[in-house]
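the two lines:
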Amino acid sequence: MNWQGWAEIALTLSLAVAIGWPLGVFMSRVWNGERTFLDPILRPVEAVFYAACGVDPKKSQSWHAYALALLAFNLAGFAITYAVLRLQGVLPLNPQGFPGLSEHLSFNTAISFVTNTNWQSYSGETTMSTLSQMIVLTVQNFVSAATGATVAAALARAFTANRGEGLGNFWADLIRTTLYVLVPLSVVVAIVLVALGVPQTLSAGVVAHTMEGADQKIPLYAVASQEAIKMLGINGGGVFNANSAHPFENPTPLTNLITAVSLNVLGWASFFAFGRSALVKKDIRALVISAFVLLFAGAATIYATETRVPPAQMAAGAETTVNMEGKEVRFGAPATAAWAAATTGASNGSVNGMHSSLMPLGGAMTMFLMHLGEILPGGIGSGIAVMVVMAILAVFVAGLMVGRTPEYLGKKIEAREVKLSILAVLAIPVSTLGFAAIAAVLPEALKALMHTGPHGLSEILYAYTSATANNGSAFAGLSANAPWWDATLGVSMALGRFPPIVAVLAIAGALAAKPKLAPSAGTLPTHGGLFVGLLIGVILILGGLQFFPALALGPIAEHFQALAFVAGH
Amino acid sequence: MTSIDTHAGEGRPKSGALAAGLNGPVLARAAKDSFIKLDPRKLTGNPVIFATWIVALLSTISAGAAIVNHQAAGFAIQVALWLWATVLFANLAESVAEGRGKAAADSLRAARVTTKAKLLVDDKTGTWIPTPAHKLGVGEVILVEAGDVVPTDGEIIEGMASVNEAAITGESAPVIRESGGDRSAVTGGTTVVSDWIKVRVTAEAGSTFLDRMIAMVEGADRRKTPNEIALAVLLAGLTLIFLIAVVTLLGLGKFSGVNVDPLVLGALFITLIPTTIGGLLSAVGIAGMDRLLKVNVLATSGRAVEAAGDVDTLLLDKTGTITFGNRMATEVIPAPGVRPDIALKAALMASLADETPEGRSIIELGRNQGLVVESPSGATAIPFSASTRQSGLDAGGRSWRKGAVDAVYRSLSLDPKTIPVEITAAVDRIARSGGTPLAVSEDGALVGVIHLKDVVKPGVKARFADLRRMGLRTVMITGDNPVTAAAIASEAGVDDFLAEATPEDKLRLMRDEQAKGRLVAMCGDGANDAPALAQADVGVAMQTGAQAAREAGNMVDLDSDPTKVIEIVEVGKQMLITRGALTTFSIANDVAKYFAIIPAMFVGALPALAALNVMKLHSPQSAILSAVIFNALIIVALIPLALKGVKYRAIGAGKLLSRNLTLYGLGGLVAPFVGIKLIDLVISALGLA
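prediction for all of em together
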């Protein structure tokens, strides 16, 4: 560990917050339908979409209608993606001549991209045609991110309503977020990446003649454009299997910084946008600080474990002071630590180093950050939405201690909100631990593992954790393209995405209908340091603690075994 | 009258009829009840304790199987016993809380009429026939005479009597009840001490005030309050989450080569689920109602008690709540050239025969300044009359008068222009400050002006400052003109006031406040208060008040003390704080339990995990047993806190949260580490595990 390393981590993580703030203000203006500087260009385009879809953007929907529209849109997205992947072999724009995908892989991949997970049971450069990459997967990269944003926009409106009903219009929120935020920002980032050496081409690839005289086929894609939305949309699905450790996706330390920052930027922006649209700027600061503290602690843990010499190397008497296993030589430990924390805290799932190669406690931390519910800052919109659920639970548990029934941001928290909040967070342990426990004893599933023992268990746990959290990063080591894994991971992704979204929208509906209460000196303050501490405590205890036994059997056991091994020598 | 600065629960001298103590018989009955409550059908409303019941049963079966198979069963038996103890302790908490109410209900039942009522059959002759109280129908007229117990609720249609209401209120001084107006309601179970009354029955048998009171204190129709329901949902949700976390360990453990003992898994599950708050939740609610009963307030629902904690606006009637209600003399301003003591003496002489509270306050003022006057022999009292608008005393050819300023001027035939400017200035000043000036004359000469003032009760200002820190706004309601109202409002330190208020104004003000998202509490006793009482989130009716008011409010104050609403708010807050504190404590406890049980569970197959045994517990079995025992004992240890409640402090929400979070959040984190370690030391020393 050195100060440059700490500075690099601090810069990477805090730059995202700093840029996320103004972006959030802009995003809030977009949600609120206020004027933006892009109006002259985009208003007419927006109108074309409304006219084509027959949508009246001013018509506010009840939570039922909003949720139904969202589910219908995502179901359609799933069906189209599934069909294109199956039929890839007979569709155009397939210069590589790849065949269609299997049923289970198509199912898994379609859910994966619709749910903003981007779990890839396949290797992009040897599976996906240009059509599949550019049309269906990239489209989902945009609209799945925008889907998350709509949830936050609807929730924000619930807090400003006073005995109101409508949560806004799903179609307008979806179209506006995509048009005004995601597309322009992706264009900017893509151009910057192209300038920094990331390829952007429709050609199938180049053939290089190696020094041994062999021909090496190097596949190429429109990488820069994919890369931009992969990070900004918190999708994480790379064009190449090695993801952001691949030199075409992430050629230099500068692109590493830009992409690492951009993977968190819209998550933070959603926090700030929610704060501005819900008229709770002071309270949102507490949520941002809570999330940032946890995220930084995660990065610090990983950095601390990754800069120690591995016990096994020490025992073997290796004369080394660095631990470069699984890390890209271009980036090193601090960039890997910052990225690993950022990508797992943010439900992004891209990697610039292999998480399986992290030290056990570092690997445990990447899983733990996902277990917390992807709220640091999580996906676009979905992160802040679950964070608000956490805040509701925190207020409910401890808020009584000021002598009033709990309220958050001027809305009373009652049985219905508590029930829905529990439903929103229940999916995480059910899907993560439930599937992992079954896979752990199923011979069919165990065939896919590379390791036995605690590290093998980590491979299983990580897969379901990543899928449920809609993160999409892989631990490596698991050969996931098999019917059991494709199917169950697909179900995990859906469980981790849609029940929480519907629960949050139902909460929004319930809250919108309640009177907006005026704060007084007796109201629980939800903006100070005290609330930050409370919220962090609740996130760790209610959100994280139930995973402790599973982690104890996996990475924690591995950690202590390694220490015991060294002590034995 | 209770002084306003009496704090809730602090040395109220009067103990109401409802304040039954915790004594031997109550505890014995509670202990018995806690076994009766082991019936699983009685536990379905409490998922956490129900889950504990099931696991206790399963572990008993597992212990039994071990005995039958001649395996070592000591550990299984101990775990099973402590799990049953956990359920019993939770039941005990509820039974003890109910016990007090049951004892109070028994004493109320004794007040029910066993003698026959006198049903009037002929109003003219007064003929009556003896009829059992439960046969009386609504609208029938009964006669109640001195010495009779009022058989049922009713309204006096003729007569006036002094009534001893001790059976209901605990207050033995009789009160006057008479036909017409706001004092016409009588309550079944009270006793007429003098005179007679004719009463029209207003309540069906079985639904009298006394019946409802018995049902309330006994908790017979106790329903969960909204916040309690929400909390129960959260606890059920947590139970489900921990069930998943524990059950999945079967599969995950098998992969890791750990053969997880289902008994240990059950123990882990029970220690993780929030049994502490689950076991104490209903006791906290019952104790909250009980604390209200202790200050002699009867809530018609637990919902109202909860709402009391949420109140952020208090509408208070000025008279009787903020001020003493009677104008009192505070000074006598002498006319120019008159010695102050002469002016004071003249004021006293003019008031000697005046028996009104104002008159007596003038005598009191003299006594406070060391001046006592005796009535001269042969004095003639000159009473107040509407035409002269003054009163006084004539004796030995001398005369003293006091009265309305303009009336005294006129009777003295004073030319307004010749009145000394000092007097005019004093009269103006008094009027502007909201007081009433009275002119005093002696032997036909103006000697001074008495300042009569609505005196604010001592301590009121400090109390309102406390309320403000609690986040409560106080609004004073008065029929006074705005000038008087403003003066008193600023002296009492209320946040706002409504002057020249009619009952309609009061209702409108309340609706405005509620529309702004505030919860409003008020108290009232008149029939014209009924609409506002019904509209209020917390409406406290006075027991001495009109029947309509008592029915409109959701609480009845048996002491009829309008300042009680402040204590009610504190009781409501106290109940919510207690619930929150126990929930936080219960959840924070989980961290330590993981560190006790997880290493114990896995250390066999993964010896490296012994590093997680941070408490250095003796053995895996002692670790598990210690966690289970701690989990059971903590319920018993916290019963007193659940019943007594966490003390409420008016220090503002932020400070309150910080204090309670430290105490119950951090305390809940640390306490089980210490407790489990201590229990482990004891059981390993005893060789139990």
